[in-house]
Amino acid sequence: MLDARLRGRETSLHAQRFALDERAAWIEGLAGGLERWAEQSQVAIGDTLTGLGGGAAAQEADVDAYVQRSATLALARAAMVATREELMARRRAQQERREREVEALEAALVRADVRLSAREKLLAVALREVEAKAAATGMASVRPPSLLATPPSEVAFTPAGPGRCRLRLGKTRLLRGAIEVDAASRTLLASVDASPQVGATVELEGEAEDGPLALPVIVRRVLPAGTEGQHAVVLAPSGWSQQDWRRLERLVAAL
To answer: What is the end-to-end Cα distance of the chain in Å, rounded?
Structure first.
């Protein structure tokens, strides 16, 4: 029964990943076409297309990269568990590993879908700006590439939202998926490049919509990881209030 469910989920994941790759290729292709058209037509578009071509969309569709960046957090979670069940049947162990892989890919697909949707919105805005600049230079009769070739999902013609919130642990910036907050156990898990010293107090600094956030945390444990040379870090809060926890949780959700 579990095998059948896993096969179904794996088939669905494959189809969704293929659709994401198609969307990324569509964004890259249209952004490249716009850039070439602007160059040939001598329309100055500045940095309008920054982050839309040159492999940027393909990188956001790379769900394997999201899984790799989460690997060090998995190590940190394992470090918090005092004991584990040691004896398992081989078949059950294989099924559990496959289930974890499927769940990680499902979560990564959601993140990739959100980010590609944001780039589709940015591309729509960029197209309007290019057309406006072409009209301003007297080239309204010359049309840049259009959005008629729709990708697998609908393009939303709305401006991009405000800038993302930012979060740093010491001097290391924490990106989305590189930190987890467990308020119930009053523990933080982070994936960082530079290994902090165990027992040291480090400042967790954030720039959220409701203002700056500065929270001291104590480094409880550090586990070196082979994936991308990052380290899994277990952190404990120092003197936080319930409001601090709520603000941090909102900030992490907004990264």
So the answer is: 38
Nearest to 237 by CA among 246, 228, 229: 246
* Helix, strand, coil share of the chain (percent; to 5): 50, 20, 35
Could you report the per-residue pLDDT of 215-251, keeping only the tens digit for each? 999 998 887 755 456 788 888 899 999 888 888 888 8
Helices marked H in 137-233: none
Give the predicted TM-score (pTM) of the model. Answer: 0.41
Among 6, 126, 118, residue whose Cα is nearest residue 61: 118
Q: Which amino acid is at 232?
A: A
| Calpha distance 207→247 (Å, rounded) | 11
Helix (H, G, I), strand (E, B) or coil at 249: helix
Q: CA 31 to CA 26: how far, in whole Å? A: 8
Tens of pLDDT, residues 105-129:
877 877 787 677 777 777 877 888 8
